[in-house]
Amino acid sequence: MADAPPPGEAIEVARGVLWLRFALPFQLNHVNAYAVRDGDGWVVVDTGLRTPDAVAAWEAALAGALEGRAVTRLICTHMHPDHIGLAGWLCERTGAPLLMSRLEYVTARMLMAEEAGDAPEDGEHYYRAAGWSDAQIDKWRAEYGGFGKGVAPLPRSYLRLSDEDVIQIDGDDWTVVVGSGHSPEHICLWRRSDDIFIAGDQILPRISSNVSVWPTEPQADPLGDWMDSLTKLRALLPEGAFVLPSHGEPFYGAHARLDALKRGHEVALKRLDRTLRQRSRVIDAFPAVFGRTVGDGVLGMATGEAQAHLNYLERRGRAMRTRDENGVDWWSAVEQDEETT
């Protein structure tokens, strides 16, 4: 695959499909977006984070690579800020309607309504149960409500996309494929005629998408949802599909990558089984889940993902927790009969 396009420019990676890239101010320093030719205009998929640099890059792309043509629709794969950050701005700028799944849109609107400094008590209980210190909880409280900082106000209405919907773009049928685990109802788009698959964060070429439990639903099983989604995609997509991901470069080899993603979690779960032979907190599970120590800079995401692996084991009768007098959960393995192991 050719080098990634510079901000504000685009590369045609498939018939009528342009690849754009926008900078992110994080360790993961970029996000991809795509523009699919739609008659005299374009359907845009994802937008990047709301930053001055991203706005400038979009202005350059609209005038240059997109040839000043209309944006007929904006599709956002899911509600994370690097994907919807400029959705409201782009819809207002171009007049395009916003298309999303219901859970992604509603969840985004809910998170946008959270006010800075209004950290819920339930969140404190959740992170204390995971083993966070008072200083770490205080830092979380001080930074709470940051979702809206990277997201322009969303349109007050949207058009719903659901699994197996078929939408037409420039005379081609694109099938909506929904996955979950990384986010609640993540949209992918599949042009079956030539097996172009706009994957969002459901299939990434080199890294695994974060799969986390959050304080709003502490008993959730997103890893179970994620593993089911990997199985679904493995059965649905042909090996020859050309995958257009949100991070990294477009690639072939969907089956091998899906297998590797699933295997990575299975290995982490086996390591976690061994860790839980001794009573452990969520934060003690980091080396098993990630194979390394974790710094405070990614403490929230690491906690969420470790919790997801523990909840997965608990749901399947392989782990249990007990809460001590300080509100901290201590996890241990559940002995399995030979017939069930």
TrEMBL record:
Residue stretches making up the Metallo-beta-lactamase domain: 30-247
Domain of life of the native organism: Bacteria
Keyword annotations from UniProtKB, A to Z: Hydrolase
Any Pfam family matching the protein: Lactamase_B
InterPro entries: Metallo-B-lactamas (IPR001279), NDM-1-like (IPR050855), RibonucZ/Hydroxyglut_hydro (IPR036866), WH-like_DNA-bd_sf (IPR036388)
The keyword Ribosomal protein is assigned to this record: no
Cytoplasm is among the record's keywords: no
Gene3D superfamilies per UniProt: Ribonuclease Z/Hydroxyacylglutathione hydrolase-like, Winged helix-like DNA-binding domain superfamily/Winged helix DNA-binding domain
Molecular-function GO terms, alphabetical: hydrolase activity
Name of this chain's protein: MBL fold metallo-hydrolase
Source organism of this protein record: Brevundimonas intermedia
